[in-house]
Design brief:
Helix content: 25-40%
Distance between the termini: 72 Å
Number of helices: 2
Radius of gyration: 23 Å
Structural class: mainly alpha
Largest sheet: none
Length: about 70
């Protein structure tokens, strides 16, 4: 048991027998982490703001990709 006092840890918390990183691989597999440059973090402080900004751009890219795709009727 650690002797370091952490003000956020209550005495009744018990970690004995725990396995560090047990679910880390599963978590990493199910997430898509993107690192923003520091100057963008004030504009995009969370996932919702990034998604809101990128959704119209993604729709525009999709629509242009579909309109320039070769026709199946040849």
């Amino acid at each position: 048991m650690s002797t370091t006092l952490d003000p956020d840890m209550l005495a009744e918390y018990e970690f004995e027998g725990g396995e560090r990183g047990k679910f880390a691989a599963d978590y990493a597999h199910g997430t898509n982490i993107i690192i923003l440059e520091p100057e963008l973090m004030d504009v995009f402080p969370d996932s919702e703001s990034v998604n809101a900004a990128l959704r119209p751009l993604a729709n525009l890219i999709r629509s242009r990709t579909l309109s320039t795709a070769p026709s199946a009727k040849t």
